[in-house]
Design a protein that fits this description.
alpha/beta, Purple Acid Phosphatase, chain A, domain 2, six-stranded mixed beta sheet, 17 strands, about 30% helix, single chain, 3 domains
């Protein structure tokens, strides 16, 4: 069985006020393009099943344009008889149950299986059972859904989730309504666990993977390759990452301005922009430890002229006064206290917990130096 695992397409997302040739927001068009690339690949390669693990849309109430685009793409799959299961994520799940879900419009498209009612659903496809859990209305609902999963002894068991993961290493976005589960819920009995919510493609455990998002949605994702997984389940499990062609988002790093003049800072910025070739890219650069008089002396007109070909260029700064204030604050005690409180809540072997705590504290000590 061959499956495509995709997530976090955030259709309808827009940013930066730049418009495309059709008059629409360029970033909105970029996001549509990435999804259309995925659909093209699916139609070309004919997988047995597609799993979309949440945040198909960027909002609970997407625009008519976003809805129309999605329906067009899903109809393409339907015409090719490629089934797709789509679970709702935190971005498109209404906070109030009575609000209703936009996913209802997909129920009448042949081969499209929306899962959005805040509870566990399972479906059989060939020799696999798909255990689907959408974003739930409460943490208690999510726990009930996870605990109600019924494993099959005669099929490959595949689970779909849209959650953050907490444990020794954490995978979460910081969204105010995200739901997070301990790694203990990622049972090794599943042949494959398809995850959505965390925007980086990454292995969480031996059988659990985040596909990541199909586009960049913040500078925390700068430089990351975007795409989806192609998964082959035939006795064992083989997977490969399929990259998408997306607009580059680059964090250019930091310039320490503490000993530089306005002219020197301007030249550094110009040199960096020249090296990176800003055309059509999304860029960010931070100026650190700069005093206000020096900042005012920077040639912003020249920088604006050179960076104008970029889709977006963010030049942020941190004043020398602010950096001094931060340096004067005690932080390591707070970090240690937060770590000890966190690790105390993790259900793992006592000896392992002690070793992990010792290692973490040594790293925190290095940070404070």
């Amino acid at each position: 069985m061959r499956i495509l695992h995709v997530a976090d397409t955030h259709l309808g997302y827009s940013a930066y006020h730049k418009v495309a040739s059709n008059g629409l927001n360029q970033r909105e068009m970029d996001v549509y393009d990435a999804f259309e690339q995925f659909i093209d690949y699916a139609i070309e390669t004919k997988p047995d099943l597609i799993l979309h693990c949440g945040d198909l849309f960027d909002t609970v109430r997407p625009t008519n344009r976003a809805i129309t685009f999605v329906i067009q793409q899903l109809l393409r799959l339907s015409e090719e008889e490629i089934p797709i299961i789509i679970i709702s994520g935190n971005h498109e799940t209404p906070k109030l149950r009575e609000t209703g879900s936009v996913f209802r419009i997909f129920e009448h498209i042949k081969g499209v299986y929306p899962v959005y009612k805040g509870k566990y659903e399972k479906m059989e496809f060939g020799d696999a059972i798909i255990h689907s859990i959408p974003h739930c209305h409460t943490g208690e609902d999510l726990k009930k859904a996870l605990e109600s999963v019924e494993m099959s002894e005669r099929h490959h068991n595949i689970e779909m989730l849209h959650v953050g993961i907490m444990g020794i290493k954490e995978f979460r976005t910081g969204d105010f309504n995200e739901q997070v589960i301990p790694t203990g819920y990622l049972k090794p009995d599943f042949s494959y666990i398809a995850l959505g919510h965390y925007h980086k493609s990454i292995e969480v455990s031996k059988n659990a993977y985040y596909a990541g998002s199909t586009e960049h949605f913040s500078f925390k994702e700068a430089g990351e390759e975007k795409g989806f997984f192609e998964v082959e389940i035939n006795g064992g499990v083989k997977k490969k990452f399929i990259p998408l062609k997306v607009r580059p988002m680059i964090d250019m790093g930091v310039i320490d301005c503490s000993s530089l003049s306005s002219e020197e800072i301007t030249k550094k910025i110009m040199d960096m922009l020249s090296d990176i070739e800003p055309k059509e890219k999304i860029l960010r650069l931070l100026l650190k430890k700069i005093d206000r008089a020096t900042y005012r002396g920077i040639d912003f007109d020249l920088i604006k002229k050179v960076s104008s070909s970029a889709l977006y260029f963010e030049l942020s700064y941190e004043t020398a006064e602010h950096a001094h204030e931060l340096a004067g604050k005690e932080s390591i005690g707070t970090l240690v206290d937060e770590w000890r409180e966190f690790v105390s809540k993790i259900s793992i072997d006592k000896k392992v917990k002690e070793e992990v705590e010792k290692l973490a504290l040594s790293y925190l000590s290095e940070v404070s130096m």
